[in-house]
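Section 3.1: Structural characterization of target chains.
Under the original work plan, the team committed to producing a structural model for every single-chain target entering the pipeline before any wet-lab resources were allocated. The record below documents one such target. The sequence was received from the expression subgroup and is listed exactly as submitted; it comprises 1397 residues.
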Amino acid sequence: MKCFLGDQAVDIWTVEVNQGVTHSFASDGDTSTTKYNGFTFIPKGLFEQFRRVANLYFLSVAVLSMMTFSPVRPWTTWTPLALVVGVSMIKEWLEDYSRWKADKEENNRVVSVMNPATGQFEVRKWKHVLVGDVVKVMKNDYFPADLLFLSASNEEGACYVETMNLDGETNLKIKVAQDATKEMSSSTVASFRATISCEPPNSRLYLFMGNLMPHCENGMQKNPIPLGPSSVLLRGSSLKNTDFIHGAVIYSGHDTKVFQNSGEAPSKRSTLEHMIDKVVIFMFIILFIMCLITAVFFSSWLEASFEEHWYLKPDAEDNVGQYDPDRRAIAGTISFLVGYILYGYLIPISLYVSMEVVKVWQAMVLITKDRDMYHAASNTQAMARTSNLNEDLGKVNAVLSDKTGTLTQNVMEFFKCSIGGVSYGTGITEIERSNSERRGIPLPPAYEQADSPLHERYFNFYDERLLSGAWQNEGNAAEVEMFYRMLAVCHTVVPDGPTNEKEIKYEAESPDEAALVVAAKVMGFFFFKRSNTTVTVRETTAAGTAEVEYELLNVLEFNSTRKRMSVIVRDSKGNLLLFCKGADTVIYERLDPQYGPNKEMKTSTSAHMEDYGASGLRTLCLSWKPLDDSFYKEWQVKWKDAKISMTKRDERIAELSELVEGNLRLLGATAIEDKLQDGVGQCIKQLADAGIRLWVLTGDKMETAINIAFACSLVTEEMRQVTISSHNAEIDALEAAGDAEGAAMLGNIQVEEQLKAAEEELNGHAAQDHVIIIDGKSLSFALSGRLLPLFLAVGMRCKAAICCRVSPLQKAQVTGAVKSVGLVTLAIGDGANDFSFLTPLLLVHGRWSYKRIARMVNYFFYKNLFFGITLFIFNAFTRFSGSFMYDDVYMTLFNVIFTVLMPIVIGVFDREVDKQLGYKFPVLYQAGVDNTWFNAWAVCGWFVSATLQPCIICAFCLLGTWPTISSSEGGHPWSMYEAGILMFSCVVLTIHLHLVYIMELWTWIHHLCMWFGLFLWWLFLVAYGELPLSLSQNMYKIYIGIVAPSPQHWLYLLLIPVAALLPDFFFRAVRRHVDPDPHHIAAEYQWLKEHGGGGSSNKVAPGPLSTTSTRIFQGGAVQSAPGPDRTSVGWNPAHAPKETAVDKEKFDVEARASDGILRPVPNLSAANLNKTGKPSPRGSVNSIVSSPTFRGQQPIMEGSLPNVPYSVAEAVDGSSLASSLSAPSESSAERQADRNIRSKGETPRASAIIPASPRLPASPPSQSAGLRPLPPTASHPSQPESLEPLFLSPTPSQAGEPHTTLSELLHSLDPTSGSHRDFTDQGYTNTQIQKSTDGISSKQASQSEGNTEQAKSEGNISTSSRQAPDQEPAASASPRSSPPEGAQEELCKASDQPKAQ
């Protein structure tokens, strides 16, 4: 007999229950998740290790080293290979051993199993549980197999199951036993016999199809009982809130659904690892070229010059043709193989092992133990389940997220409702309040439900027209009564606990259902009892209070395709009723056109649901209808046949559901609030500023999704919205006429046109951020093969995307489509209530992990290529004869001992800025998205250093140790191994010192590892030379006796590494000062925060930035004045110019924070990057003079150059800014004189305040200059909302606090005359100038009028509350005058914008 799994016909399983029958076709209960066993570990483990190309290469080198022509001894190649492979295999064994222990523990768990022979339960291990057994599972225990639920300890025959290990959801699921078995007890189950016919084992976790046929005394029962997923208890889930259950084993062991879904874990490799493979291949190409050069040159030299080198003895017995000029082909081949062995150091043998060690540390220690990743409410720390993808967390380009339970808390509260065309509920939602605050519209305080006697969990509703029985006086009381009766009856909720209204608890599969049942209870329809066939409700109506039992005839379950749920019940009067609730679209399609009130009610209900959706509420439409007895009887016969059918059961059930759910009568709609997660708005804003695209996939209506997106900062007013919808009058008419094919064709055309228009919109407004909004029906067209490329092209250019009304299948399709673009994608599903933790996970740990791994890998290739090139160069000096000047022992130890620690330290501890600056400057994350640290240019830069530096070392060492040069006072010439020690020492020292000016963070661990690695090298030289001659050979006594006493050796050791490092150091230093990266500025900013002042007032602190560039984070060509470079390597405060009183007041940040000290504030907003994510070319901008006197500085306003990546400075506290930015090098007396002048209302000698009427540009700067349109603010419609004066009091850069946007510009003064620089040269926007004059003109006015106190209060310019356009400023607000009327008119004229009122 066959059944269908999808379109596939399969054999039906027949299970004999509790009959002691062995089912040979089924697996036993013994399970295993291990990768190896005792017989397969070594062969399979070795196979896994040598699947890596690098290990396979080293194996070939080790084999070749055993040949007579090998330049090295075999053990020097086999030892590191065995060490690396051995460590990896030990790691594999430890991981597999952990799996074996977990399997053993699970297989040896015990459960009570019925013995049919004795009729008693006996304890067995899980591995001995077989198909057909009847088991008894106790509360909180896990199910040992997939079970058919027979009975429970309660009368209802229901139990609660936690499936967190299966799907990650913590909500308890309700399982219900069949009526025929639910009353079985532990004593009667012994006599139970039955046969189960079901589908064979499969991976469909939430689907099951089968029939139960209990046995009678005279044979098998004639009428089979249909079985569905609600009756199956899956292995991996646990029993909750139920004392015990009885179940029959359907699938055991590896046949269970959890094992059918597990399979073999896919090999997950990060994108960086794939790139590493390409670099390894490139290294192999270099190796091959070097070997080819070696072979060709050596064979040519052998033919041309062999006669002069007769001592090579080509006729010797141990010579296999390596030096035979008559066999050039053989000689060239052998020379190629010699080079293949000798240059093997190009491939880093310990790279993969080091990467695994670093990744495990990053995941299991740094992430797991991070306090920012700790959830205090549940006392849960982060758990990293894999370490393979650490660095990909720093390269995420797009985040795809569900809404419910991810952006929101998944805590539902009944909030509003629409009944009979009337809307009820007076509360203000969190979304409404958030959006109103964003628009500057004041709202009344939220109604506090804690003050209401009716307040309880799931209920946050207030309306005096309905509460406390008041609904009975409403004009639509009949509709209200039916509305709440339906809420009390149409559900799958199970009551738990005492049957009184205060203590009862409801167990529901979704919190939405629980909220609806609680709302019905509060309104007087108290559901308190249910069985498989009845639902009992205590109803309080105008007729009084009565317990009404409804006979539950059929439940038409909800699924993502139906989008509705129905029940058919018979009330106490014998009336047949169908209640149906679901999405408005599916309910409206099934309304009875002949029922008069439907049309009017549909119009009003639709309007109410749109309002609810705009408030961010989850809506549900309610309907009902009476059923005719004769119709129902005919339908019920067909329904029973469909339920027990083993072929196309789902299709037949869907057809019958559609038949009975037609001609409905609309009741109204419910609106439920699901509050946002704490911190989700800040998290999304930071992710967006980091350049990460965010896609939200939700089943909500478009209005609801958009308003929630605004509330959580996914969409902002500055964004341009691109809406894709396939709804219009023509398409709706075709659908209403039943022409689905024509509607689909027209919808497809419309979606294509809208996508093309969206592409034109993106091209026309490329400087602005966009958000694409698309509904589910349009998405089905967009995901088609023809439109998918266009949809992805548009979607991936948008800052955010909102997909509304999507099904779970469409969510998976969208995720797969975005992933197919080739970018790193992070998908978050239902139940991931930790969205706010993405900030530390991505912006901190992801960024660190990516940079650390990338830099570590680059350093590995650098040091290995460095060392390999020294071998190649010396081999070239010896005519490519295979000679080398090193001893093969310390050559072997180069990778595994002398240089092994520093790469690991880089991978574990490297950091340019601390985590708080990672939060403050999210755009630092963009380096990972752009692959800045491991792109072709970065790798080539390391390769250039690895090529140039060994050439310098070889040149100096070979020239300095020429045989005619004495190495000591005794006249001894340099020997090859003596020169080899010098060159190897220079190599090791240079490789370590190379990190000194690259790494931003140095701790005692860094110093320990670096100096310990160098110490090991010199310790080895001493120890190895002291070994017996038979062991040390050429190194015997050479270091202590010859090398160490030579002053020339130590002089070379001091000079040569410095000479090798100078070009790279000079290039990096110049680039850092002329064209720095964002992380350079951020690191400098952090250094200044930590060292810029504090302690004694006599301490001289460094200036804001170096002399070369005290730069704007949005700046380019920089002007500067002479002065000490206070941040470059080697700057010494002791050598700084003599400090004056002015200097003390300016630099002592900690002690004199009120003096308005400037510190650099990077503008690292991703909006300021071009479309490639990289900083755009620099433009000509202003700079700040960085001499100790801060000559000619002006206040800093937010700038208009978003295409350049750096900002300048921020005042720590501007309360006395004017005095701190005075004329050059004045004394304390002069400064006091300036203060006296100000107190009299006069202007000091060199004020740093922008005049109220500056010279304005003749025309506004063009868009190509980097301007971007921004929305108007409430108080100044013509100016950007984000343009704020920069002189603000400092705020700590803690996680969760607003981060710095860093687009501040600096207006420079002429340091010689003190006159103000012409604004026409600056490229500033009119709105910036207006903002600047508006922000400080009140201070000028106060100074000119002698108002000293007001001048002091306005010195620290702050942002006041924004007023709506039609609002007057608050009376208590600080007075802020506008620019002179003429200047303002000229400003507005230049910008073609209306004059600000």
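The first helix runs from residue 41 to 49.
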